[in-house]
User: What shape does this take?
Amino acid sequence: MKNIKYAILLICAVAFASCDKYLVQFPTDQYTDAQVWQDTYLIEANLAELYASCCVMMNDSPCSFGTSPVNMEFSQGWNWNGNLGLGAEGEGPVHAITMGDECKYSERGAQTNYHSYKMNGVQRNSSLFRWWNNAYYLNRQLNHFIENIDDSPVTDAVSLKSEARFIRAYNYFALVKRYGGVPLILKETALDAPEEELYPYRASAEEVYDFIFKELEEIADLLPAAPLAGRAGKGAALALLSRAALYAGSIAKYDSPQYQLVDPVTNKLLCGLPAEKANDYFQKAYDACGRIMTECNYSLYKGNADKVQNLRDIFLVKNNCEAIMVRRFDGTKESNYLWSWDIALSPKPNAWSVGQYALAYYNFIEQFEFKDGTSGAIDRTELVSHPWDMKEFFADRDPRLIAWHWTNGSEWPGAIGGEPKAGDPENKVVFGKDTISMYDGIKHADGFIYDNVSVTADPELGIMSYGDQQKEMANAGLLRWRHTGFGIRKRLDPMADNNTWFCCSTSDFQIFRYAEILLNYAEAALELGKTGEALDAVNQIRSRAGVAELGSIDMDSYRHERQIELCYENHRYWDLIRWRIAKEKIDGVDHEGIRWILDAESFKAGHSKFWIEINPHVDSDATSPKFPDSNYYLPIGDGTIALNDHLVENPGYGY
Assistant: This one.
């Protein structure tokens, strides 16, 4: 297939002096701009490239893997650490979830290390979540598409144009939530344009949000109600509207003057929104969710009677009723539409014994309630007082805890639960086949813990002193003590190919799902004083999960439910930002993990149990995570400001 390249500014065709049209030569591996706009297939391909270039749709990944044009943010060409470590098809979606208070980066990843950002905060020229150069590159392509599609021969120009407008609105939401007000460029800028167009000032945050809302309100009914998988439809436009309006409402309500910024030249409020607009924004979110709930054909997925499997299938069953918009991965390498979630988060077996790149804090595990709605935090004295059978530990817990995590004793295809001791007639094993074994040490009756990492076999029991999953962790020295005891299973496909290479995940990435809409609706309703409606929406989610419904609701119980249902989907970090509680939840918080220790006596009896030891300071033995006040907005950066001195840097970054 021809490699489609689009020339956006000037396309020069080489013509011979003869007027004979057959002597005019065109490249055989490229298309001119004029050719693109006369060919329906090329126009569709152009739009597909625009979707792919909006890589922030994948958990805010700031670039793509390979030779995509949206790699200019970090290097002039392909860069292993940047493109695989941050790329949407690589490890980017994994690293993004480690910045909040749900999980940590395990430091096992071979590529970009988000751990340093969490421990030091975002600095003046940091690249964390950076979406500026790539954003404006994409914006230019989108403006070009929007300006030319009307004159093309396609019969569905209005719908295609609306899709491009959706991507542009998504792009600007990604910008405004990072930086506040940004230059609002809504037409393709000529190279000889006036200086005010070439070097624009930042629009106010309010102007950017108003543009996003107006675009989405206009295109919602121009988009198909039932779009093809991977493309924006009416539901996606309204879902983005609800997400952006909720974000704006929170900033308007919860912001503090210390985080605000006024442009000294234009006098526009760049960081912050007028407090009096909060309810208007919440109303927009409420109305958008209401339209999805009444006008669109989406619902909570309930395709499997088994609660745990049903919760896993939300992310594995393609085209299910909960998926409003996905990024489709069809499993063919030729499509370049694959990603690395499975190999980066899975337990062994996998290539190079990778996996476990992100680990759930035990503090977060405790947030999952028991089925009857009581707290999931087991008294610490009780926790460490006796060895636990793994089924006992998870008994009567919120099914979402079991569905979306893996740990010691979890089932997993090919996992090594242990082999019988040679010559043991009873064939005792820690676990059977296809079961995850991640204990770390063996505790004997006299209290002695055998955990020798250089001599693997316990001299009395004749079995390894640590489970198969812990092997690399144990051999990494102090890193073993910073394991949290829990891996992330949400979105993992047990049938995925984790033994070939990265980028082999084939499950679709859900950009918007119906559960988020119910939660957005509940939050907006709460902010507007509609408590009954909020309670009903949240209880729909709890009922689907298999947890007791709430009898009443307030903002704290709502936020708790949102964190549980949307965990590891890249909502939590941004929720902490917009609620202005990120400093409280991240800065100086010493998160904990647990260490599973095999009980020797229960192993001898043929039924393994495990002692639990609390591991403090799992992020670092030396320091705690940092969240400087400046990090409520990201830095624009010296290089970008040097190119346009009309830009004002955000507060706290040295200006």
